[in-house]
Amino acid sequence: MTDEKLSWLNGNFIDEEKAVVPIMTHSLQYGSGIFEGIRGYETPKGTEIFRLKEHVKRFFNTAKIYGMNLGFSEGDIEKAIIEIVRRNKLKSCYIRPFAFYDDHSVGVGTAGKKISVYIGAFPFGKYFSAADTGLKCKVSSWHRMESSILPIEAKASGNYLNSVIAMKEAKASGFDEAILTSRDGYVAEGPGENIFIVKDGALLTPGRDSQILLGITRNTIIELMKENGMQVIERFIHREELYTADEAFFVGTAAEVTPILNIDGITIGDGKVGSITKKVWETYFNLVQGKSNTHQDYLTYV
Ligand code: PMP
């Protein structure tokens, strides 16, 4: 076993290659896993894990919604995450806590089935290859599923089929990414990102009732930009408001802050990365890369 690629499984540090499951695993067959996506960043003071507590909280909330008893406390999982980053000597990285029904019998029911908890971490850079130059997006013909169908505030594996099919459609049509709307036509989010637009100097983002995952990056950016004196409005956004926006960008743990320059073939603003997007980008990266004096409690150094 090298000490370079360790994972954590049910309280034990194991070789990443040994973290495998049989094909018939319930969560593989039925999408019943739950997970988180967390980033670690290299900073002048060493690696920090960004908003660790909030991510672990959302992991436990997802488990609660699905009635999964993880058998560990939030503190246990936070410690294990810090330890996995430390032991793998990771700098900028992605961390994936995952809990799943570790049962291999046929049957959708979950009663009495074993739950396993895994944490993996690996080096990670940009999520989008066009992260700096901007994305071309397509409003999907697939709507965002709504919370009467599946709990959309939960970060559960099955939810991501809605994302997969929207992304497939966007890519097949020559776009970089999809934008999903709710069934009543309001803008919701990307397949793995929240969205913001800029109108007349204000930042607008779909609110909680717009069928979105309550993103931790979204929350961070709302907070940071309000502190910067910017007007930030959470409300329903019409599809056509995307086309007439001055600027648009995605945010998320993986996506960070990624400009959107074209939607459905319509150029957003002047087609260049806008000044407010740049400001959001700078403010966010200053914080996560340990160059800001504010919100130090969001940074957990390993
Ligand atoms: N929406 C969806 C569907 C996502 O998968 C993600 C990524 N977790 C986000 C939004 C952004 O959430 P966060 O900022 O917490 O990563």
UniProtKB/TrEMBL annotation:
<dbReference type="InterPro" id="IPR043131">
    <property type="entry name" value="BCAT-like_N"/>
</dbReference>
<dbReference type="InterPro" id="IPR050571">
    <property type="entry name" value="Class-IV_PLP-Dep_Aminotrnsfr"/>
</dbReference>
<keyword id="KW-0100">Branched-chain amino acid biosynthesis</keyword>
<keyword id="KW-0028">Amino-acid biosynthesis</keyword>
<dbReference type="GO" id="GO:0009099">
    <property type="term" value="P:L-valine biosynthetic process"/>
</dbReference>
<comment type="function">
    <text>Acts on leucine, isoleucine and valine.</text>
</comment>
<dbReference type="InterPro" id="IPR033939">
    <property type="entry name" value="BCAT_family"/>
</dbReference>
<dbReference type="InterPro" id="IPR005785">
    <property type="entry name" value="B_amino_transI"/>
</dbReference>
<dbReference type="GO" id="GO:0052654">
    <property type="term" value="F:L-leucine-2-oxoglutarate transaminase activity"/>
</dbReference>
<dbReference type="Pfam" id="PF01063">
    <property type="entry name" value="Aminotran_4"/>
</dbReference>
<dbReference type="GO" id="GO:0052655">
    <property type="term" value="F:L-valine-2-oxoglutarate transaminase activity"/>
</dbReference>
<dbReference type="InterPro" id="IPR001544">
    <property type="entry name" value="Aminotrans_IV"/>
</dbReference>
<keyword id="KW-0808">Transferase</keyword>
<dbReference type="GO" id="GO:0009098">
    <property type="term" value="P:L-leucine biosynthetic process"/>
</dbReference>
<keyword id="KW-0032">Aminotransferase</keyword>
<dbReference type="InterPro" id="IPR036038">
    <property type="entry name" value="Aminotransferase-like"/>
</dbReference>
<comment type="pathway">
    <text>Amino-acid biosynthesis; L-valine biosynthesis; L-valine from pyruvate: step 4/4.</text>
</comment>
<dbReference type="GO" id="GO:0009097">
    <property type="term" value="P:isoleucine biosynthetic process"/>
</dbReference>
<dbReference type="InterPro" id="IPR043132">
    <property type="entry name" value="BCAT-like_C"/>
</dbReference>
<protein>
    <recommendedName>
        <fullName>Branched-chain-amino-acid aminotransferase</fullName>
        <ecNumber>2.6.1.42</ecNumber>
    </recommendedName>
</protein>
<comment type="similarity">
    <text>Belongs to the class-IV pyridoxal-phosphate-dependent aminotransferase family.</text>
</comment>
<dbReference type="GO" id="GO:0052656">
    <property type="term" value="F:L-isoleucine-2-oxoglutarate transaminase activity"/>
</dbReference>
<keyword id="KW-0663">Pyridoxal phosphate</keyword>
<comment type="pathway">
    <text>Amino-acid biosynthesis; L-leucine biosynthesis; L-leucine from 3-methyl-2-oxobutanoate: step 4/4.</text>
</comment>
